[in-house]
């Protein structure tokens, strides 16, 4: 090689290296999924609107946002309740496909009418489609969950720390044997703050000890605080600060594990929250209308309620209910079967879990049970919080932050669907979901 060619070769090589180093889409290496971790952190009930508050006490979340990608709002699916949306986050599908309408499976019986939500049913019966963790496990990747939902006894979870963990659970026994947990930590009925701390200890232990390729992790303090005291309260901001410190504990665990640079974080929520000052007592309403539990039963979920009507005289009773709800203070909308497909609900003829009517509350109102005696609408004793309102409501929009391996820096999205989370996670894990409602978020991926 002559001198001229040498310098030309050297210049081109240096230029290519410089361009690679400066490119936002570059990776230092293309690591196989089995050599990486994807950690999905769900902060239950964290509204997207909190991120617009410059004084939000969440430095860890801010750091993840600024060093990665985030969305100003992520739209949940209907119903805007916990288990249906968490199941969407790991399937990319809505209730007609994944089967979750409640925090469990609804069991309906007739003659007499009876409806009950069972949260103990195994995942293989509760979820009606393949999940991200099923597919990842079948591809030879390791999977773990801490307090995730609709996941009871899932055979495709390698390590599990369930919501109602006991000392006989394999991972719990392992943690106790390694002095990472005391058996007494699981006894009695500790506060949700204590339980979130225990769950975070379990998540950090899994990261350091087992390095799962996929970790699904769920915390409940903010949801509980919002229900009891309402959003944008001092108690709520205290809960945000606490959860931010739990996220930091997991981030630190990744650094301690030596997987920093090989880990992707998704921080998400299932729904937002509204403040409520007035309650609609459904048992009282039905009793005053002389509709018996053998004819009509209601399951209230804050911003909405599912109404079930016995098969006998169903049309007449449905007509009576529509007239009743139209006259009831605080009712915003009554949805029948003709509206179920656009709302993302299954039809009752295809899924017996589905109600015969869905009623939605106005802002500042929430549905409650009642005693069967007393006023139909009453003032709440103090500000409380509810979700369950339509997924188009600005207050119901959820949290989305992505950071780490495979994620672009400095991308801000205005609006995304939570049905895009699962296909995006699948891309990072090198697997494919058979069907999703919306595509992956290519704009945040390197």
The chain-level structural class is alpha/beta
Number of strands: 19
CATH class of the largest domain: Alpha Beta
Sheet having the most strands: 8 strands, mixed
Through-space gap between termini? 37 Å
Name the helicity range. Answer: 25-40%
The backbone outline, from C-alpha atoms, is globular
- How much strand? 15-25%
Q: Report the CATH topology name of the largest domain.
A: Alkaline Phosphatase, subunit A
The gyration radius over C-alpha positions equals 24 Å
Which regions contain 5 or more consecutive residues with pLDDT less than 50? 5-28
How many discrete domains?
A: 2
Global mean pLDDT: 94
Instruction: Please give the count of helices.
Output: 14
Q: Can you identify the CATH superfamily of the largest domain?
A: Alkaline Phosphatase, subunit A
In oligomeric terms, what are we looking at?
single chain
State the strand order across the main sheet: 7-6-8-1-9-17-2-18
- The CATH architecture of the largest domain can be given as 3-Layer(aba) Sandwich
